[in-house]
Amino acid sequence: MSRPAARAVSGQPSRKGVLGRFADFLDDRTGYRAVVHEALYERVPGGARWRYVWGSTLVFAFMTQVITGLFLWANYSPSAQTAWESVYFIQYEMAGGWLLRGIHHFMAQAMVVLLALHLLQVVIDGAYKAPREVNFWLGLVLMMLVLGMALTGYLLPWDQKGYWATIVATNLAGIVPFVGPSLQQLVIGGPEYGHHTLTRFFALHAGFLPATLVLFLVVHLAVFRKHGLHAKQPITKPDAMFWPDQVLKDAVAMLAVMAVILGVILMPALRAMLAGEVVHAAHLGAELGAPADPSLPYAAARPEWYFLFLFQFLKVFEGWGATGEFFGAIVVPGLIMTALALMPIVGSWRLGHRFNVAFTLAILAGIGLLTALALNEDYSALWVNRASLAEAEKLHDQTGGDAAKLVAALGGDRTKAAAIERQWKTLEKVRRSQAYLDAVKLAEADAARAVELAGRPERIPPAGMLELVRRDPLSQGPRLFAQHCGSCHAHVDPLAPDAEAVIAKSSAANLHGFGSAAWMRGLLDADQVAGPAYFGNTAHKEGDMVSFVRDDLTDEATWPKTDIDAVVAAMAAEAGRPVPQEIAGLVEKGRELVAASDRCGGCHAFRGNGTDLGAAPDLTGWGGRDWLVGIIVDPTHERFYGDRNDRMPRFGKAAEGALPPLSRKQIELIADWLRGEWYRPAKH
Amino acid sequence: MARPHGNDPAALTGHGAANHRAAGGESRRDLLAKVLAVACGGLATLPPVAAGLWAFLDPLRRTRGAASFLSVADLAAIPDDGMPRQFPVIADRVDAWTGFAAEPVGAVYLSREKGSREVRALSATCPHAGCFIDLEKATQCFRCPCHNSSFTLEGGIVNPSPSPRAMDELECRVGANGQVEVKWQKFRAGVAEKVVQG
User: Fold this and answer.
1) Do A241 and B7 touch (CB under 8 A)?
2) Pairing between β-strand B150-151 and β-strand B157-158 as defined by DSSP bridges
3) Do B102 and B175 sit in the same domain of this protein?
4) B79 and B129 fall within a common domain
5) Percent of chain B beyond pLDDT 90?
6) Domain limits at B158?
7) Sequence-ordered alpha helix ranges (H) in A463-601
8) B117 and B173, same structural domain?
9) What is residue B8's predicted lDDT score, i.e. its pLDDT?
10) In chain B, which among 5-34 make CB contacts under 8 A with chain A?
11) Among residues A135, A330, A362, A404, which is most buried (max CB within 10 A)?
12) Residue A146 pLDDT > 90
C-alpha cells in the first residue's frame, strides 16, 4: 500500500489544518493510515449484502461482552460467600447495575443465536469450501469457546439455577472415559463445589476462554481477509467496498441486535408499568435466583434454553444408565461436531454440498424439535385442559393406576378402559408439568424472599446470604412443616377455597393461625371443636375438652357470650397475637376465667392458679414462642399432653446418643413461622 | 495490490455499473452511508459503555454517613498519668452488602491528666498518609512506622516531619456512667488543614 493512495482516501484538502498536520505527523511515525485503510477497504464482490452481516454482529456481540464483562468484573466477587451477594448488589443496589448485567446476560444468549445464523449462512453459501477450510475449522473452535463461556458464566451468580445446572454439566464431564473424574475435579477445584469452583469458573470465563477466543478471532479474521469475502453466487451487482457500504449494513444489524437486547431487558418493566405496578429492579434485566443451597431440592433445575435440547436429548437415553448418558452427552454431540468439521472435505464430493446443507438444517431442526419437546413437557399443564381429564383422574385415584381394577371399575368396558389409560398418560405428563411449574413458582418466591432479606438494614451476615435464608422462618417454616408436621396437621386458611378438602384429609388440628383469636374462637365453638380442624380426627375427639365445649360452654347461664369473648381475648394476648379491638378490654377478665377452678382452671394450669400439671396442657404462655417450641420438643411433657399425648412425636428428644428428629433451631423456625414472626421490610 | 480482490477503492471506478452515476451523487451517497454507519455503530455501542460507566461511577454516590459518638472505654480504664493508651473502636460496619455487628473498625489513643475527668482522644490514623501510628514507650512519643512522622504525647507535630499537621484529635465526652465516648471521624490525609472525610 503506497502512502499517496492512502492520503487520497483520507480526503484532506491540500491546505491542512492543525488536525490534518497532526494526522500526517502520526501517520509518518506509526503508519496508521495504511492499517485503517487495510481494515476498511476490502472489496465486496457483488456489493454489500445483508446476508454478510452475521460475522460482524458476532464480533460486535463479543465486544459488548468484553466491555460489560470488564465493568461487571469491577464489582463481582467470586467466592461461595460473596458471589450471590455481589451479584445481588450489582443488580439491586448499584446505579445502572441492572442494565449492565442485563446487557451481558442477554447478549450472551443473542451470541448463541448469532452463531447459529453465521454457521447457517456459511454452510448454505458454501463458504466453508476450499480454500477456506481452515477458517471454517477456526470458526468451529470459536463456537466451542463461546459455548464454553456461556456454560461457565451461568454458574457465576451462584444461585440455585446456575449451581444445579453446573452440577449436572460437570457430572456429565465426569463420565468421559479415563480422564473424566480428574477433569471434573480439576474444573470444580476439588472434590466439592465451593470457593474454588467459582474462582476457577471465573478464571475460565473471564480469562482463559476469552483470551483464547481473541487469539482465534484474530486468526479467523486474518484468514478471512486473506481469502476475501466468499460471495454468494450469482453476482449480479457491481463490487463495492467494505467501507462504507457493508459497514453500514453491519452497523444497522448491530443496532438491531442491541435494540432487541434492550427490548428484552425493559419488557418486564414495561409490562409492570402497563399493569399499574411499581417497577423495581426485579423487573429489570437478568434474573437472580435464590442463593445456591446444596441441601435444598431444586425441582426447577433446567439448563439455559440453548442447552435445553441436550437436556431433552439425554432423556432419550433414560434407562440406559451411565452408558446412555455417555452416549447422549458425549458420543452424539462429538459425532455431530466431527461431521461439522468434515464438511469442507465432504463438500468437495459430488452432492457433498447438498448433503452438508441438508445435514445442518436437519441438526438445527432436531435442536428445534428437542427444544420444543422439552418446553412442551415442562409447560403442558398451561394449555392442557385438566377438566377434560377429571374422570380419568378420579378413576386413577380410585384404582391406584391399576389397569385390571380400571376394567373392573368400568364394568368390563375394555374400549373405555383403553381410552382412560391413554388419558392417564396425558394426566401423568400434566402432573409432572404442574410439579415443574410449581417448582418454578417456589423458586421465584425464594428468590424474591432472598432479595427482600438481603435488603434488611442489618445487611447480609459475613457468613453469606445462605445463612440468612436458612434462618428465615418464612422460607424454611413451610418446608419443615410439610416434612415433619404436614402428614398429620393441616395448615390452611379456613377461608381458602380448597380448605375444607385439605382439612378433611388431615388427622390433627389445622394450625393455620394457631394462637390467634379466630383460632381460639373455633376451638370454643361446639360445632367445630370435634370437627377435623380441631380434635375431630384425633384421640381427643371424645375427650374432656370436647365434652366441655359442647356441654358447658353452650350453657349461656354459666358461660355468657362475653365470658367466651373474654377467654378468647385472654388467650390471644397470651399467645402475643393481636386482640380484636371489640374484645380488647376483656383480657383481664378472661385471665381470671381461665385461671378459675370452676372454669378452665379446673383442668388447665394457668399462671400459678394452683392446678396441677398433667391433666390438660398448661395455658401459661399458650401459643407463644416458648410454649410452641416446648410442645414440639416434647408433647408428652406434663406441661402439655403428658401420657394422654395422641400420636405426636417428641421432635426435640431422642434416646441417649441419638439425634432428635429436629434440631432446636429447626423447631424454633417452625414455631416462628406458625406465629407469623419473620422479617418484613418497612413499607415506604 | 495484485490480489484478485484488491482493496484499492480506485479499482472500483473502472467497474461497469458504477460509472454511469454522477461522481457527485456517488460521493454524497457515500458520505451519507459513512455518517449513517458511524451513527448506527456508535448508537449500538453506546448502551454497554454507558451502562458500564454508570455502574462504575456508583461508588461516588456512596457516603460514609454522619459521624456518631461511640463508647470506647470506661474512664477508670484510662490511668490518669498523662500517658496515652490504645483502645479499639467498636462499631457496626457495612461493607457493600455485608453487615458486621460490633466490630473493631479502628483505634484511638486516650489519655488524661492526674485526677482529671477530661480525656484527650487522638486518632491512631496518621494525618500524612493514613498509616497506623505507634506509641513508642522508649522515646515517649508517637511514631508512624511508614514515613517516621513523629508526634508528642499530646499529638503535637515534632519537626522535621513528613506529616503536614498534628495528630487528629477527636471530640470526646465522658458520660455520667463513666463511659468515654468518642466522635468517630476520619480526616483527609496529606493536607495541612483537618478536613472531615465525607
Assistant:
1) yes
2) antiparallel
3) yes
4) yes
5) 75
6) 69-183
7) 465-470, 473-480, 499-505, 517-523, 544-547, 561-574, 587-595
8) yes
9) 58
10) 5-12, 15-18, 30, 33-34
11) A135
12) yes
